[in-house]
């Protein structure tokens, strides 16, 4: 995966005075390429899991021109206290299709595998150098009628600074997402529709 080379290049270039802007542009361009490549690869796995054609999401109106949002995140070296409601980032799920997350070697990210459980059980996600952590988004949960569940996650600080790169991926804005049903090939007849009909243009602003 090219991601490791991108980060090594960035780490080297920022040490050279006056090269930060050039390095950022290079990294941003290469990260966008990686994001597109990885997102499409993951979408093919999702398609197969839903009993669809492997290239179902490759269509122009799906991921032909995906919307991607890249952010660099810095968490200060503060200690979180969940009992007091103090977090690096509170519990939430992302609104898009998938989120690709690259982190440093500092623990902090936690996920809740069963977000409907009472009480909720949280566990740390171990950072893995050169790899992406993949969070599923609310849009995929709605579109698949909960066959895929969005990832509830939060950040719990341990006193160390933490850095990560986050890439949100959404379908094209022209895509109509039928939120009240799964794709025909994957629909379970015994599974009732959980969401009303909607479109991305209406769905996304409601979550921002």
Topology:
Layout: H1 3-13, H2 20-49, H3 60-64, E1 67-75, E2 89-92, E3 98-103, E4 109-112, E5 123-124, E6 133-136, H4 138-143, E7 152-155, E8 162-170, H5 200-207
Antiparallel strand pairs: 1-8, 2-7, 3-6, 3-8, 4-5, 4-7
Helix pairs in contact: 1-2
The total beta strand count reads 8
Order of helices and strands: HHHEEEEEEHEEH
Overall outline? flat
> Taking all residues together, what is the mean pLDDT?
77
Query: Roughly what percent helix?
Result: 25-40%
CATH architecture: Sandwich
Number of helices in the DSSP assignment: 5
Subunit organisation of the chains: single chain
Radius of gyration: 18 Å
Strand content: 15-25%
CATH secondary-structure class:
Mainly Beta
* Main sheet summary: 4 strands, antiparallel
- Helix-strand category: alpha+beta
Amino-to-carboxy terminus distance: 32 Å
Could you name the CATH homologous superfamily? B-lactam Antibiotic, Isopenicillin N Synthase, Chain
- Give unreliable regions as ranges: 1-17
The total domain count is: 1
Query: What is the name of the CATH topology?
Result: Jelly Rolls
Strands ordered across the widest β-sheet: 1-8-3-6
Describe the structure.
The chain is an alpha+beta fold. The protein has one domain: Jelly Rolls (Sandwich). The protein is built from five helices and eight strands, in the order αααββββββαββα. The protein has helices at residues 3-13, 20-49, 60-64, 138-143, 200-207, and strands spanning 67-75, 89-92, 98-103, 109-112, 123-124, 133-136, 152-155, 162-170. The chain is flat, with a radius of gyration of 18 Å. The model is unreliable at 1-17 (pLDDT under 50).
